[in-house]
Amino acid sequence: MRIVLVGPPGAGKGTQAAFLAKNLSIPHISTGDLFRANISQNTELGRRAKAFMDAGDLVPDEITIGMAKDRMEQPDAANGFLLDGFPRNVSQAEALDEMLKGAGMKLDAVLDLEVEEDEVVKRIAGRRICRLDSSHVFHVTYAAPKVEGVCDTCGGELYQRDDDSEATVRNRLEVYHTQTEPIIDYYKSQGLLVTIAALGEVHEITKRAMDALKK
């Protein structure tokens, strides 16, 4: 299957993508991984992307599209893939359609993880990270430490990252609404959109998505 996963920040796309890709035996292709791989391997696209990133500029669509195309042409993606973070706007969605059409392929579904904006803010703004070990992550509501502000595992101080502040989260949501949300209507008009309620336990959301794909 060839699937695109969309949804606002905090909807759980990364977590669901990993589970769905494993269940469907297809590679999980995320924009973040594409950039990291191309930059670490010093590819031409990676060098071009890094130049924009080092200057604090957005990476142009053509570079992101090029990276995605190269990755989707790898042998492990021959029988399908799950795209996470790409396409991020209608121009990229149109480019993806052209790529697939040129290869005699098409998307099977676009999964939209739906979650209320206030819930997104609550999920992200409530995160607390250990200063001694960033892999130790807590949440003031969903996974509170035994002692407020103290890591259960190593006793390190827990803090809120600047990226997780409510103001930053709401700004990220605004960017999502402006740039990415229009692809939902784009795919809906093609009859590809499948909306999944992204509230509940991780396995429950995965089951909803798998059940929807079977239909």
Automatic annotation (TrEMBL):
AMP binds at T31, R36, D57, L58, V59, G85, F86, P87, R88, Q92, R161, R172. Pathway: Purine metabolism; AMP biosynthesis via salvage pathway; AMP from ADP: step 1/1. GO terms for biological process: AMP salvage. SUPFAM superfamilies: P-loop containing nucleoside triphosphate hydrolases. GO terms for cellular component: cytoplasm. The keyword Ribonucleoprotein does not apply. It is found in: Cytoplasm. Its main location: cytoplasm. ATP binds at G10, A11, G12, K13, G14, T15, R127, V137, F138, G200. Belongs to the adenylate kinase family. Catalyzes the reversible transfer of the terminal phosphate group between ATP and AMP. Plays an important role in cellular energy homeostasis and in adenine nucleotide metabolism. Consists of three domains, a large central CORE domain and two small peripheral domains, NMPbind and LID, which undergo movements during catalysis. The LID domain closes over the site of phosphoryl transfer upon ATP binding. Assembling and dissambling the active center during each catalytic cycle provides an effective means to prevent ATP hydrolysis. This is Adenylate kinase. It comes from Streptomyces lavendulae subsp. lavendulae.
